[in-house]
Specification:
It is built from eleven helices and twelve strands. By secondary structure, the protein is an alpha/beta fold. It folds into two domains: 2-121 and 292-326, ATPase, nucleotide binding domain (Nucleotidyltransferase, domain 5, 2-Layer Sandwich), CATH 3.30.420; 130-288, 2-Layer Sandwich (Nucleotidyltransferase, domain 5), CATH 3.30.420. The strands form three sheets. A five-stranded mixed β-sheet has the order 3-2-1-4-5, with helices on both faces. It is globular. It binds adenosine-5'-triphosphate (ATP) and fe (ii) ion (FE2).
Length: 331
Amino acid sequence: MWKVWLYKVEKMICLGIESTAHTFGVGITDGRKCLANRKLMYRAKGGIHPREAAQYMTDNAHLVLKEAIEEADISMDDIGLFAFAQGPGLGPCLRVGAAIARVLSLRYKKPIVGVNHCIAHVEVGKWDGKLKDPLVVYVSGANTQILGLAKKRYRIYGETLDIGLGNAIDVFAREFGVPMPGGPWLEKTAKKGKRYIELPYTVKGMDLAFSGLLTAAKKLARKKNRYDLCYSFQETLFGMLVEVSERALAHTKKREVLLVGGVAQNKRLNNMFNEMCRFHNAKFFVSKPEYNADNGFMIALTGLKMFKAGVRQKDLHINQKWRTDEVEVIW
Ligand code: ATP
Ligand code: FE2
């Protein structure tokens, strides 16, 4: 009997739901391939309004789900496991994904797992790069963490003490009337800058603080050349990040560096990391944009790994402040 069960788990297909902030995503995987990865993104003029984003997800979730099932070319009965992003994130948005996953699990009588969103970013990057034990630099809108696996947990070697790196970029871009996400605009504009303008550089031990730098850059928005200011702002932000990452790499002696999260798409940041890794003889890897930005596939992939390793959760409530290092990594 247990052999049949093991066989079933081995062949299991998992459907994962992402809904931590602006993206509602549905991904499907058998653990080897990405069978589907569909998403819709709520676009806000200013910052994200959690209730509006949740409403947008509620209105559109069924469309994304249908598209994902069609893309995978399977039926709902083929799904053996449902996974959802349990946190961290915005409460109203998290609740949408959690409720849908719970209903699907009950309707199709299949198990359900809650996945830590940050760990899902890491796992999908490791899967894509076929990495074993990387130092992970996770840079998104809300999060900035330098992580590494040690004694069954992703330990946080350094992190932001205030806002996330992407957030700092988005708020700065808003000063110039650029809607979210401001990252691609900053990258393009910074390329035209030539002269470095001195800005606050705040590294505290292994941690980072961006709000002082952001305030100073915002104050200069109307006073300095836009291109030079964007260039200087980007160089300072990334310089701080690379400095702390380099120290973590030297200390942990890991042989691989994985850059994940929305900001990882920035070419200038990639170049800086490439150079730093070359100096330390470490392999550098950055995932494809579709896996780097928030998506359902990373939730499905991580959920399946967790389930196969034996993770069974009693508490499936959302956890808005779920920290990366609170999760025991038994897979
Ligand atoms: P998380 O919930 O993990 O914090 P998130 O909701 O912020 O994720 P992501 O898609 O991981 O979403 O990251 C979005 C961030 O990435 C935005 O702040 C955006 O400005 C930034 N970003 C996107 N492209 C670039 C780029 N080319 N350069 C710099 N930043 C970028
Ligand atoms: Fe994310």
